[in-house]
């Protein structure tokens, strides 16, 4: 049985158990009141039988009738018609009331156990089929996205070749350079989607010098940074992660920071006792850019895959904080 199924079954069984426990407690006090009323009515019946038998009737195995009070027993006192100052006592066998309640709850608990067991089986079948169906849908979606990304990647590769051919024939290459840059950006975005679909077993973790990786990415954006100021003091810092994933994370975060900045991009690395903290901040040049692209959500998924946390704050500045444990 899968771990997900066990979790669902555990919480379902716990919920039913707690609900039945509360119900049984309420039922116990309610039943106790009915049993006490029933015993009183039975005691009164024995009292009347005692009078009608001209005081020869003495009760049965659970009730005793007489004119003497029995200590340490539950007794009901009724007026003696022949003696205004006297009483006739009907004593109840010790634990008689509890035996009635116990017999009732033994039967009830047996029925409840059967009902719970039945519903657990039904619930397990439903959950198992539902999870299997969701798993199939997830695999189908991954295959579809991977197929589309692969075909689109082939298209981009062809366009890059065509672009390279054009660059050898045209003198004014400024427009071609911009087109090439756009193609590379789309290719990076597609790679993020493809890499996100990788399973855990295909992820290769190693110690990566993250400050060098940031400098390498900043060099790719030299043209975009000509009229902007970058504040970054590299300090030798290592993160244990997948090289491809770290490149995707940093490229997308830095790309967004540059794209939506007005004039300043600030990158800082903090080292703590428990891990590494990366802070990316800019002066927000586009206050309407609240979402900053679907890529941000994808990046957050990649960060979580490596046991990290990612927080985004958009006010006067666009700030992203990424934290990795050592």
Describe the structure.
By secondary structure, this protein is of the alpha+beta class. It has two domains: 118 residues, no CATH class; 122 residues, Heat Shock Protein 90. The chain is built from six helices and ten strands, in the order H-E-E-E-H-H-E-H-E-E-H-E-E-H-E-E. Strand 2 and strand 3 form a beta hairpin. The longest helix has 74 residues. The model has no long low-confidence stretch (mean pLDDT 82). This is histidine kinase. Keywords: ATP-binding, Cell membrane, Kinase, Membrane, Nucleotide-binding, Phosphoprotein, Transferase, Transmembrane, Transmembrane helix, Two-component regulatory system.
What's the short version?
The protein is α+β, with helices and mostly antiparallel strands and 326 residues long. Helices cover 57% and strands 22% of the residues.
Distance between the termini: 34 Å
Shape: rod-shaped
| Low-confidence sequence ranges | none
> Roughly how many Å is the radius of gyration?
40 Å
Query: Strand-and-helix sequence, N→C?
Result: HEEEHHEHEEHEEHEE
* Count of individual domains: 2
CATH architecture of the largest domain: 2-Layer Sandwich
* Strand-pairing-aware structural class: alpha+beta
Mean pLDDT: 82
**What is the CATH topology classification name of the largest domain?**
Heat Shock Protein 90
| CATH class categorisation of the largest domain | Alpha Beta
| Largest sheet, strands/sense/barrel | 5 strands, mixed
| CATH homology group of the largest domain | Histidine kinase-like ATPase, C-terminal domain
Give, in spatial order, the strands making up the sheet with the most strands: 5-7-8-10-9
Protein name: histidine kinase
Membrane topology: Multi-pass membrane protein
Transmembrane segments: 9-29, 104-127
Subcellular location: Cell membrane
